[in-house]
TrEMBL record:
Signal peptide: none annotated. One of its GO terms (molecular function) is acyl-CoA dehydrogenase activity. Keywords: Acetylation, FAD, Flavoprotein, Membrane, Mitochondrion, Mitochondrion inner membrane, Oxidoreductase, Phosphoprotein, Transit peptide. The keyword Thylakoid does not apply. Residues 74-179 form the Acyl-CoA dehydrogenase/oxidase N-terminal domain. GO terms for cellular component: mitochondrial inner membrane. InterPro entries: Acyl-CoA_DH_CS, Acyl-CoA_Oxase/DH_mid-dom, Acyl-CoA_Oxase/DH_mid-dom_sf, AcylCo_DH-like_C, AcylCo_DH/oxidase_C, AcylCoA_DH/ox_N, AcylCoA_DH/ox_N_sf, AcylCoA_DH/oxidase_NM_dom_sf. Pfam families: Acyl-CoA_dh_1, Acyl-CoA_dh_M, Acyl-CoA_dh_N. It comes from Leptonychotes weddellii (Weddell seal). It is found in: Mitochondrion inner membrane. It catalyses: eicosanoyl-CoA + oxidized [electron-transfer flavoprotein] + H(+) = (2E)-eicosenoyl-CoA + reduced [electron-transfer flavoprotein]; oxidized [electron-transfer flavoprotein] + hexadecanoyl-CoA + H(+) = (2E)-hexadecenoyl-CoA + reduced [electron-transfer flavoprotein]; tetradecanoyl-CoA + oxidized [electron-transfer flavoprotein] + H(+) = (2E)-tetradecenoyl-CoA + reduced [electron-transfer flavoprotein]; octadecanoyl-CoA + oxidized [electron-transfer flavoprotein] + H(+) = (2E)-octadecenoyl-CoA + reduced [electron-transfer flavoprotein]. This is Complex I assembly factor ACAD9, mitochondrial isoform X1. Residues 183-283 form the Acyl-CoA oxidase/dehydrogenase middle domain. Its main location: mitochondrion.
Amino acid sequence: MATSGSMGVATLFLRRAVAARASRALVAFATSRRLLRTSPPSRAFAKELFLGKIEKKEVFPFPEVSQDELNEINQFVGPVEKFFTEEVDSERIDREGKIPKETLEKLKSLGLFGLQVPEEYGGLGLSNTMYARLGEIVGLDASIAVTLAAHQAIGLKGIILAGTKEQKAKYLPRLASGEHIAAFCLTEPSSGSDAASIKSRATLSEDKKHYILNGSKVWITNGGLANIFTVFAKTEVVDSDSSVKDKITAFIVERAFGGVTNGKPEDKLGIRGSNTCEVHFENTKVPIENVLGEVGGGFKVAMNILNSGRFSMGSTVAGMLKKLIEMTAAYACTRKQFNKNLSEFGLIQEKFALMAQKAYVMESMAYLTAGMLDQPGFPDCSIEAAMVKVFSSEGAWQCVSEALQILGGSGYVKDYPYERFLRDSRILLIFEGTNEILRMYIALTGLQHAGRVLTARIKELKRGNVTTIIETVGQRLRDSLGRTVDLGLTGKLGAVHPSVAVSGHTWHTPHVGALLMDIPFQRAVTRVLGRMAQPGSRAPGPQSPSQVGWALWGRCRSVVFPLAYLGQCQQARGERVLLWPHCGDTATPLWQDHHGGADDPEAGSQHPHQPVWHDGRAVEGQPLDPSGDPKSRPRGSAGQHLLCRSLLPECLHPVPAGQVFSRKSR
């Protein structure tokens, strides 16, 4: 157990790091962050896919992290990782159904309750990238991860996004220190995914100084711990036509206002240490200055809060899976059946490959989305964040199931920690928006974006706008000459294709969302591999990203079927092909540098969490020619052992195909 002195040193270090960061020349970046509440979002990658556009400028160049920030990330990770690996007792937390008080106090002393609270209000003011990196460590205990996320990703996030200066100054300092804990109150007994149907009501008092709040909320994480609640309730709003309508308004509610009670903690399947309970408001007097945002604008506030925090699930779940892979591999490398270690059987190797693939994609998507969010201009990444959440939650459930299949009976009993991973991961598919609703959200939001753009274009054509007419005619001419490739979402007349235009038929939209999700998966991993291919990266020796790409994708083509199509699109435009998977028995190398070598201006840049690669034979510089000699290309099985050390434990190392996993000699 660490002493209080060591915790004090860690806290002092964190505060000094904050001061050092504040003194650096980041004026332009800080200005862009201050303006992001009023500036309209720039075009985003995922939304443009619904117009058949690949907005490469959104991902090229890769959202980089400076060397100073990279060093700072690594310094932050050290004390946090030590605490979670040496002091956090996850078995006790799960057994007792609560996080011990001393553990909560140490979390507060490490600054983990104010990671993204601006420094001027006493927080650490971390970027989204740094927040995602620490999420990998926090994910080692699901109960703690959920408690912290409910506090800052949704509980206090509304104050940061929509609060006034007075509200921020009043509430954020004590929330950042952990003196106060926050909760997000939206769900009710009769309204879950249909948030607009809530019944809680806030009525303006006769003196117009308070709102009288009444209602009940359910499934509220931190409900029994929180001092500050972000609460959503119906209020009467006078519309533009002088009619009175019920609209949702967001409020900052203190427990000290009175009339706030909570039920007993729920006895849950997983994340048992997190506090989840009902919260009741009975004639609670909320000062009018505690309205969050505009009266009647609460639904938008709620959606902005939820959309802003989903991306971090990718890195948090990836951190959990890496730990599970390590534990499962240790078992497979020592458990013998039929005079062989389990790790020597091909089917077991395939399960490990799948888990490593999923964790790698989750991590890649989370960091790329975080990097985009950190860029000036406030790019709209709401669809990307939803995609990260859907993929990560479903990938976690699949990987945990595969791990338990390897572990057999040992994974099914409470004497071992493995079954806890299964119980903890099931909630990921439900909270922060069910995956079914998010699939609908992805498709409908994208279609609405396409509809608005196309409607505006049609209006301009009808008005005789010369520029629009020339652009439209020129695009159709290029299409007819074969210089561009239509991705199938826009038709010849510039309208959404009939197969996806009927958004009223709800059974279409999830399939559209699933199709479009695959492209950002490919984009994220491509950019990570691309960064590691640059001169000066941490991919040492002869290891080639082409082999890594095949190891990642060769056995999950169902996830990346648009890859070959994207390659064809780029080739049709006369551009160099980034990826070209071959779906037969052989595969061409999966990488060719998009810039051209050592004179690349991005050379030497680093990914915030680069893996260290095992040595292996490389296949570099080969042309991406599907008609080439199949014998000169790596076969599908050749790359199965070329996995990343950050995903696989030290006891595993690359060996010839058929003997992928074996005990490493000491």
